[in-house]
Design brief:
alpha/beta, TIM Barrel, 18 helices, binds 2-acetamido-2-deoxy-beta-D-glucopyranose, binds zinc ion
């Protein structure tokens, strides 16, 4: 501090002495003064990020809380959590003002208890964001901005992977009611209605021409109607193209990078970026080393290459940041956890990104998308909730009970039994009928 003052005084005296004759030197010296008095690049980043704090598109802390602590929040202090890359102290140090937290459950839960597990992940995010005064759960762009004015860290909830809704639009709507404002259509597994970018589980629900099925289209339309942001990270390119063609609202890639820089199937090729631009959506760049450099080691310069490339193709107004911290293993040197975002912004400033471009990348671009999604929702107020269903034969499995009268092969008498069951209070006959209905799927599975 003292040295800054001394430098400053010295510098200003120097300027006074020079002032009369050499105006041009004055200009040069005052910027030199800035250097000497200590307004560093770091200070510039700090000022910029204080004014435009980050909205990050993807974080898997909730998954880590399940793996490491079985979601027992009472056992940890969220300010400072070990073995993870995200906690309140580090979010604050990183100038993160809003975080989209993923309620993610493994693809292995598809056709099993994916819906329960997703509810539990939503529960832990909601608990986290209500039990700590620094955090606040938000469900609209306005709430997000109000939280910023109150210096709160806003939590948004997203679902990662359409398997979480078990091919049910009612489940999707109830997730919306719980505060979910974004969903990626797939994770690494295909769902019965959308194709994933992953080839690992390719056989599952794979068809000849699998992008979005009719039901998949209904999911996108229902998300538009609800005001839930469609997330295309993890989907196949064909799924992404179909969704982009269909969606009335802008979409996001919440955590993907440039395929032309690193040809990983999770990244987005230039032609798809151009379709994203036409849609008005954004790509929130993923920082995972494998997606940045196609290997486990990367540096900040490699990350900035993705930003430069995407800006060249579709402009800075189509870019955001989706760190993927706690969802991946290796991050570039200098970007190891959520406190390190300023280092990335500093590198982009060094590469002559303007402060307004970076304000967009940090938060304004996402806010524009979110507000547009809400506007489309408002426009669709008159549209009724969709009653579309996946064809039963495509979603039927032993874990899925269908409370629908069994098809007894057109036997005339079953009509009578059914209508009696509907009009009577539950007596022995109707209980037997329900038992048959409930057992039917497991009987089918056994034989
Ligand atoms: C976080 O906790 C660890 C010990 O668990 C401690 O060493 C460290 O200083 C703490 N960090 C902060 C920022 O409080
Ligand atoms: C394949 O997808 C295209 C585009 O959605 C569609 O027009 C075509 O009918 C599909 N073909 C088959 C065999 O499903
Ligand atoms: C990705 O790029 C690497 C090296 O640039 C190349 O060897 C590989 O074949 C490419 N993979 C695909 C799927 O294009
Ligand atoms: C970043 O990594 C690339 C590729 O390994 C390397 O060429 C470059 O020199 C590195 N840059 C810095 C600043 O370390
Ligand atoms: Zn992911």
């Amino acid at each position: 501090m003292t040295s800054r003052v001394v430098c400053g005084v010295f510098c200003c005296l120097f300027v006074t002495w020079y002032r009369m004759e050499f105006l041009i030197h004055l200009v040069m010296l005052s910027s030199l003064c800035g250097l000497i008095t200590g307004y560093t690049d770091g200070d510039r980043v700090h000022d910029l990020m204080s004014k435009y704090p980050l909205i990050d598109g993807h974080n898997d802390l909730a998954l880590k809380l399940r793996i490491l602590h079985n979601n027992r929040l009472s056992k940890i202090d969220l300010h400072n959590v070990s073995k993870v890359s995200t906690d309140i102290n580090r979010l604050q140090a990183g100038h993160v003002q809003a975080q989209m937290f993923a309620a993610y459950v493994l693809c292995a839960a598809q056709e099993k208890d994916a819906v329960r597990l997703t509810l539990e992940q939503i529960d832990v995010i909601r608990r986290m964001c209500t039990e700590y005064g620094e955090l606040q759960l938000v469900t609209s762009a306005q709430e997000l901005k109000t939280a910023e004015m109150k210096h709160k860290l806003a939590c948004l909830i997203s679902i990662e992977g359409g398997h979480s809704i078990d091919s049910s639009l009612p489940a999707l709507r109830m997730f919306y009611q719980l505060g979910v404002r974004s969903m990626s259509l797939t994770h690494t597994c295909n769902t019965p209605w959308a194709e994933s970018s992953s080839t690992l589980l390719y056989d599952f629900y794979q068809r000849d021409n699998n992008s979005l099925t009719g039901f998949g289209k209904a999911v996108v339309e229902e998300m538009n109607r609800l005001g839930m942001i469609v997330d295309l990270s993890h989907t196949s390119w064909a799924t992404a193209r179909a969704a982009l063609k269909l969606s009335k609202a802008p979409v996001i890639f919440s955590h993907s990078s440039s395929y032309d820089i690193c040809n990983h199937s999770r990244n987005v090729p230039d032609w798809l970026l151009r379709e994203l631009k036409n849609n008005g959506g954004i790509i929130m760049v993923n920082l995972y080393s494998r997606f940045i450099a196609c290997r486990d080691h990367a540096n900040i310069s490699a990350v900035a290459d993705h930003f430069d490339h995407i800006r060249k193709v579709i402009g800075a107004e189509s870019i955001g940041i989706g760190g993927d911290f706690d969802g991946a293993a290796n991050f570039p040197v200098g970007l190891e956890d959520v406190s390190k975002y300023p280092a990335l912004i500093q590198e982009l400033l060094r590469r002559n990104w303007s402060e307004m471009e970076l304000a967009g990348v940090l938060r304004l671009n996402f806010l524009r998308v979110f507000e547009e999604v809400e506007r489309v929702r408002d426009e669709l107020t008159g549209t009724l909730p969709s009653e579309a269903e996946s064809p039963p034969e495509e979603v039927q499995n032993p874990c899925r009970l269908v409370l629908r009268r069994p098809d007894l092969g057109g036997v005339q008498s079953d009509k009578v039994v059914w209508s009696k069951a509907h009009n009577e209070p539950l007596g022995p006959t109707s209980l037997r009928l329900w038992a048959i209905i409930l057992l039917l799927p497991s009987l089918l599975a056994l034989y």
